[in-house]
Amino acid sequence: MRKNKAVFAEAVEDILKDQCTPAVVRAIDAGGSAAALWDAVAGAGFLALLAPESEGGADLSLAELFPVLSHFGHYTVPMPVAQTIVARALLASQMIMPEGMITLASAFRRETGGGITCAFTPYGLLADFVLACDGDALLLLPCAAARRQATGVNRSLTATLTWPDASSAARAPRGGALLPAFGAALHAALLSGAMSRVFEMTLQYCNDRMQFGKSLGKFQAVQHQLSVMAEHTAAASMAAEAAFQGAGKAPSLLAAAMAKSRTSEAAGLVASIAHALHGAIGVTEEYDLQLLTRRLHEWRMTHGSEACWNKVVGEQVLAGTLSIVDFVRSV
């Protein structure tokens, strides 16, 4: 059975190669419909990857889920598929599962007058529902009842959503404590997948681009930059994958914190090196690099930047009695 489950990552990639092309991503980023791409992914049953087999799901372990999420980042999927997979797992057996896209709230605030605000929600312009952490409980908020405010960043699908009150929300009593760790680990996986593609594109460009009679990749200064980029990409991938280890059904908060911290730290460095080595072509609308690096910068901040999660890791270190070396070994 474990061997059979490995094919899910391959099947996801096959669909994304065909359906999630740069042209499709550009169209959705520009405000076009995501229905066709959503139907292709949802229709193949990928939204139930974490659901038990008895309920028609694939019952994937966290380790088996990681390469699937990484592919979503690699192909810059412009809709909350990864978030919906996690949301459906958190809501399982607690309510009738809603149809449509569910995103995870990065922030949740109750206003003085009873309203609710979820600031800078990933895919807030597209999602049908927002799943938010309210203490130990979860709130499922319909986006149709909210006021959506775009960030103003060009082609960003992130938005701040505001509800006048909680009357339209459905409440699930469990799972709230798991959402922050899932949100951080999920975006670490997306970041690692996107960074791997950025590195592949940059390496290919440096090997193909000729300057002074030889390829850019033959210059020592360029090789140095590529090696730094490769180092951060590999470290980010290992940190992200580590968050999806273990027998549990949800990532641990500490592992997720370390993963999101390391991938967020690497994201800005990888993006800057990629643009430096590509030169002027890297910032053009027609070239695909910007589809990835825009998301690296956005996902770096989503569900906490490295500064946010470094504090969590530091508090864990200071609260224990282990030396820093033994702490790292224990994690």
Automatic annotation (TrEMBL):
GO molecular function: acryloyl-CoA reductase (NADH) activity; acyl-CoA dehydrogenase activity; flavin adenine dinucleotide binding
E.C. number: 1.3.1.95
Cited SUPFAM superfamilies: Acyl-CoA dehydrogenase C-terminal domain-like (SSF47203), Acyl-CoA dehydrogenase NM domain-like (SSF56645)
Alphabetical keyword list: FAD, Flavoprotein, Oxidoreductase
Pfam family, one: Acyl-CoA_dh_1
Top-rank lineage group of the source organism: Bacteria
Segments passing through the bilayer: none
Boundaries of every Acyl-CoA dehydrogenase/oxidase N-terminal domain copy: 8-88
Region forming the signal peptide: none
Cofactors demanded by this protein: FAD
Domain Acyl-CoA dehydrogenase/oxidase C-terminal per the UniProt entry, residue ranges: 184-316
Family of this protein: Belongs to the acyl-CoA dehydrogenase family.
Protein name: Acryloyl-CoA reductase (NADH)
Native source organism of the sequence: Hydrogenophaga pseudoflava
Lineage of source species: Bacteria, Pseudomonadati, Pseudomonadota, Betaproteobacteria, Burkholderiales
